[in-house]
Amino acid sequence: MFTDELGQGGNVTDGPDNSAGHHGGARENLVQLITPGGERVSHPQYDAWVRDVSDEQLGSLYEDLVVIRRIDTEATALQRQGELGLWPPLLGQEAAQIGSARALRDDDFVFSSYRENGVAYCRGVDLSDILKVWRGNASAGWDPYTVNMATPQIIIGAQTLHATGYAMGIQNDGADSVAITYFGDGATSEGDVNEAMVFAASFQSPVIFFCQNNHWAISEPVRLQSHIRIADRAAGFGIPGIRVDGNDVLAVMAATREALERARHGGGPTFIEAVTYRMGPHTTADDPTRYRDANELEDWAAKDPIARIKGLLERKGLLTEQLEARVAAKADAVAREVRAGCINMPDPQPLDIFKHVYSTPNSWLDRQEDHYSRYLASFGDPAGANSEEGAR
Amino acid sequence: MTQMSFARAINSGLRKSLENDPKVILMGEDIGTLGGVFRVTDGLQKDFGKHRVVDTPLAESGIMGTAVGLAYRGYRPVVEIQFDGFIYPAFDQIVSQVAKLHYRTQGAVKMPITVRVPFGGGIGSPEHHSESPEAYFTHTSGLRVITPSNPQDAHTMIQQAITSDDPVLYFEPKRRYHDKGEVDETVDPASAMSMGKARVVTEGKDVTLVAYGPLVKTARDAAVAAADEGVSIEVIDLRSLAPVDFATLEASVRKTGRLVITHEAGQSGGLGAEVAASITERCFYYLEAAPVRITGFDIPYPYSKLEMHHLPGLDRILDGVDRALGRPNSLSGLEG
């Protein structure tokens, strides 16, 4: 089924018109349960996976989407105000992150990239801990074992191997937990992601490859990474691949639940391509107007993940004033917590840079630490508070 | 005590580690059914099963990255890289993940991974099978780098590496795999000499000769030959390359006043440079001559017909010893 597209001479785009049903072929397989207009559409295979989602849970999903967008907006503002060094916005990818993360059990383990701050929120990571890395206060914000989520991975795709190895460990332990790894369309070109899929397939490990195809790897469009649809690559590894509307929180949840069940019962890995769009810049240091068309952004704005579930709630008569008020209050409270947590974060101390390089004493490093602490003490201030250049 | 080969001594150490800790898991290419291309893991899969001794797909980054995931899950992976020159595809996972995760997570995540790497030349192989890449790793903070030079150390140090909570690169001098020695398999690794310590293997008073891995035997032979000429060489086996046990080196150089360092790896930016600089900083007023490095050249590993020109041999080392002693040598008359 790729031959048609290969025949297009590299002009295969996952463009804004790439929703269900427009182009025939495998594109009809894009799993969607809520249309951009908020209409619940039935799907023969995936309805069953979300049949138990109650009206109340739909309201909670809506709340989650609004809250993580608010966290993201607040963090972007904090960066603009000089409180964070950098921030990687998730704007537009809320449904992909919430739909998948809310499908997980506590004993599942997440290995993500740096953009999955919505997933971290679902795992229960403290909000100021999410910001620590971006404020420059630590190289990682939390203890992975307290929330069963590894801290953000910056090397593109490296975490997919960690998830696969973790899943091999789950198998050895005879447990029914699952490892899930998040990465983007750009990462699918990395050797590590491909090697992870080889290992996962060979050992039939309980791991989910959750690819958020947000169409852009900084300035590079997805067509530069893949000549065919990304989900179709999975078949080459012997891994079931599914392509889901990543702006449809319900469809994402259904696909993730299916993959989780498969993994828990010895069915091995699944590859999920969540087709979404990075509405913001790659990071706050990026300027997407240099490389992408404003029309494309408009097209995707019309498929906004929050507007979509809001539309569904409205159609079902669930978008009450009480719900709106509750969600707004929660978002306001979380935003205040993010800001306060950021601004009140205690600064690290100079000698902290030597801590935890090794778990046992190391004669090379101990000597350097000793010498540097003497140097700092030469300012008459052991804490090094006055050690700016020229103070000596 | 049992007479056994270097390779067999590692095998015996791996067996003990597998017996002692159910979380120890061996991974690598051809290590299971075949028992490794050098037979270092011979018989282990048969005795411990396919889940403890895992034949992996041919992907070094994949092996290392999945070992990281297993370590996250509480396992103690022992990874075999089949040959020194095959380690580079795994370089990113070693340097960016294995070495840094403990630091990144402020101690929350431990990476007790041992990476076994057969290294060095002298076996007549084609390119990529004879390299000495240790300096890439000694320059990487977060890793410990060790190399045994004899069967007893090989047996003890592999067990120490596996029980270490820090990641350890364990370089195996492959041209010594078939050398035999007495091994006491009952030695308790916890009470044996630490893998971080250097050992004085031959005492002497005129010059300190520092070697590691495959060249310790060559250095000892050099000391015997020099003794015939009335020169007393103190040979030190570094054992640990990161960190280097400078205390042991300092004590020796304060006594001899002269330092020669030898390794197979190329000279520039190599471990000899670090040893020379650190000993010069710490023992400057005890030194009677500039430190001398006798090393491989700054070339890609050469074709095997010429490898013995690249590898420091007994005569080249003794020429360096003469230089350190101010005796006539091949560079007499050259300045600097």
Short précis:
Chain A has helices spanning 3-6, 55-80, 94-101, 117-123, 127-135, 144-147, 158-173, 191-203, 222-225, 230-237, 249-264, 294-301, 305-315, 321-343, 363-377, and strands spanning 109-111, 179-184, 207-213, 216-217, 220-221, 241-245, 270-275.
Q: Can you offer a commentary on this structure?
A:
The complex is a heterodimer of chains A (392) and B (336). Helices cover 44% and strands 8% of the residues of chain A. Chain A has 392 residues and is α/β, with parallel strands linked by helices. The radius of gyration of chain A is 23 Å and the shape is globular. Chain A folds into two domains: 47-343, Rossmann fold (3-Layer(aba) Sandwich), CATH 3.40.50.970; 350-391, no CATH class. In chain A, α11 (249-264) links the parallel β6 and β7. By secondary structure, chain B is an alpha/beta fold. Chain B contains twelve helices and 14 strands. A seven-stranded mixed beta sheet of chain B has the order 3-2-4-5-7-6-12, with helices on both faces. A five-stranded mixed beta sheet of chain B has the order 9-11-10-13-14, with helices on both faces. Chain B has a two-stranded antiparallel ribbon with strand order 1-8. The longest helix of chain B is centred in the N-terminal third of the chain and has 15 residues, at 6-20. The mean pLDDT of chain B is 97. Chains A and B meet through α7, α8 and α15 of A and α3, α4 and α5 of B.
